[in-house]
């Protein structure tokens, strides 16, 4: 059905349209003088901050469809600000704490908006995750102590199904996302116990598909968002070795397409938000799976001739701009954002949590070309995905120069994509480092070194320093 | 309730609501992420809160939830309350399916809608199976990869039945778009779980033939490659020893283009004990047109070497795979 050119399928047609756009960006980049290149690769920090701070205060009428997701909006914005190494002033911080306290349910957990004494919005696992992560990101005593851990524990327990998995809310949907948000919250608040853990690993295991990735429910398709959630959950409950990690890795490594960005599922379109969901999977495996992780880095990649410093290598290859991004490709677009009255917002609800969208690469062999030619030159610890190609996609194709980040060219910015594109950018900058405390070498950061973002704890996706403060706080309280 | 927004009479002026005191949202004195709500939205939600607090499960409450859902189909509390009302009123659930369909047309990627639909269909039981399969078919005709629609469809098959034509449905979708990985996934679901088919073992031969054909038509299509591997899940020995598997790799290699997945599968085969004939060695040697170095005697290493160059996006991965190869494959 519906193919305009006789032999192209919908997947192929959509993919070639996206590829055209991306190719155009890269061609423009290749043709401009070095000074302009430098500017194009710059992270527009000031504009992003302005966009984020405006959103934290006031949102237009088109945001009515996100009315039951306001803690999410807080998290997307606050985490983005923290990734940029910025903070908000004390007044705004107090207002945020007050607002989130109003979303906290008297019986535990957080709902999608303020509910005060009488239940007006039920608590929900996803908004509980968003609120807790927001408060950790704000990070002082007042913020952390506003969380009623005892009640959250009871709420989490009440969301647990007899089969071990969790439901999003009272009689709500049961899936891997629910398992992750529950276990993540419990772990970071130091209230994770055997009762919460019981059998959740069996459920996650039943969701690993024949492709290697993890699906939302048993039987459905392997998907970047769910794979991240499933893997992070298994790490937190110490059962990661039950997964078939070799196949999982093989699946995720193929999700990086010719564009440099990641797709969410096989043969889908690239989407900036998967920079985190898929890119974060590499960070999880590297950091938290000791045996697998240790050998997952290319240590002094052996074969190296070390003729150039890594920095020169990266920069020169990028500016060579030999992007022959051809290759047969296909696709399937996904509306991650909707435009209403000239404003672009993420589409309602947790549909944004894991945009089911993403890229595709009908992997012709002619891929790549985005990265450095002489492979043997590399002499640094490198991650198993192409972190420079990912950064290039994020900076050139996902960045709105006016502030905010987005899915792909022709799409609009929104807070969800800003959060997950920046999270992915942070992961791709820091994944070269030996351990989480060392700063990346300049060669690991595409563009000016000032592009460097704060490192994150990839399991919870909060800035590392704040995570540690929270860990310490909840260990003693 | 179907009236255009422009003509909407404020609820405060509707006599049937005169006994209700609207309950405004308490955002606090100086809230963040403050939404500039449309007036209709605010009013509807104020009345909704009042009824929800009073737990009024009445026909007017039912129609109010409908309005609230139209304003924001992502409000899970409203949907939840709607289910409670539907139960209390013992409402006609076929009508409810029609309502959901209208909402879903413009919001087909929203968890709440699909969760609600599942609840309603579950209440209706096996009678709803055909209608639900039709409904998901309709949604999939607009977007053949809609994740929620596929989840729902799988739930319908398992909970309500209707497996009979499912393999044929997959076949049709794959005929339209052989790159549709969701359809491949559904095919796997049917083959492994349908009570009418013989399971993976019984279906393997015919499925392998189908998949090999798809691979030969588009060797750059990742979906059938992953599917092929999946057909031997939990039976790695058969996968390694089945000549149909190694021969499709060899055939694709001999075409000398779009062979990344063929090489990748061959590498996996070698890692699991596959013993390659001289033909394989020659085919791989032939891929290295401009490489001055002699072909590595270790075929696994040679494959990684080729992949590092032709699949440069994953160069690091192939280098890593090379370092992890079992000794002397």
UniProtKB/TrEMBL annotation, chain A:
Prenyltransferase alpha-alpha toroid domain boundaries: 43-462
Protein name as catalogued: Protein farnesyltransferase subunit beta
Region (Disordered): 309-333
Domain of life: Eukaryota
Keywords, comma-separated and alphabetical: Metal-binding, Prenyltransferase, Repeat, Transferase, Zinc
Secretion signal, residue range per the UniProt entry: none
InterPro entries, alphabetized: FTB (IPR026872), PGGT1B-like (IPR045089), Prenyltrans (IPR001330), Terpenoid_cyclase/PrenylTrfase (IPR008930)
Cofactor section: Zn(2+)
EC number(s) recorded for this UniProt protein: 2.5.1.58
GO process terms (BP): prenylation
Pfam family, one: Prenyltrans
Cofactor binding, note field: Binds 1 zinc ion per subunit.
Function: Catalyzes the transfer of a farnesyl moiety from farnesyl diphosphate to a cysteine at the fourth position from the C-terminus of several proteins. The beta subunit is responsible for peptide-binding.
Catalytic activity: L-cysteinyl-[protein] + (2E,6E)-farnesyl diphosphate = S-(2E,6E)-farnesyl-L-cysteinyl-[protein] + diphosphate
Keyword Repressor: no
Gene Ontology cellular-component terms listed: protein farnesyltransferase complex
Subunit structure: Heterodimer of FTA and FTB.
Record-linked CDD domains: FTase
Family according to the record: Belongs to the protein prenyltransferase subunit beta family.
Sample GO molecular function, one term: zinc ion binding
Automatic annotation (TrEMBL), chain B:
Highest rank taxon of the organism: Eukaryota
Cofactor(s), by name: Mg(2+)
InterPro entries the record matches: Prenyl_trans_a (IPR002088)
GO CC term (a single one): CAAX-protein geranylgeranyltransferase complex
A Gene Ontology molecular function term of the record: protein farnesyltransferase activity
Reactions listed under catalytic activity: geranylgeranyl diphosphate + L-cysteinyl-[protein] = S-geranylgeranyl-L-cysteinyl-[protein] + diphosphate; L-cysteinyl-[protein] + (2E,6E)-farnesyl diphosphate = S-(2E,6E)-farnesyl-L-cysteinyl-[protein] + diphosphate
Keyword annotations from UniProtKB, A to Z: Magnesium, Prenyltransferase, Repeat, Transferase
EC number(s) given by UniProt: 2.5.1.58, 2.5.1.59
Pfam families: PPTA
Compositional bias of kind Basic and acidic residues: 1-17
Family according to the record: Belongs to the protein prenyltransferase subunit alpha family.
Function: Essential subunit of both the farnesyltransferase and the geranylgeranyltransferase complex. Contributes to the transfer of a farnesyl or geranylgeranyl moiety from farnesyl or geranylgeranyl diphosphate to a cysteine at the fourth position from the C-terminus of several proteins having the C-terminal sequence Cys-aliphatic-aliphatic-X.
Name of the protein this chain belongs to: Protein farnesyltransferase/geranylgeranyltransferase type-1 subunit alpha
Natural source organism: Acer yangbiense
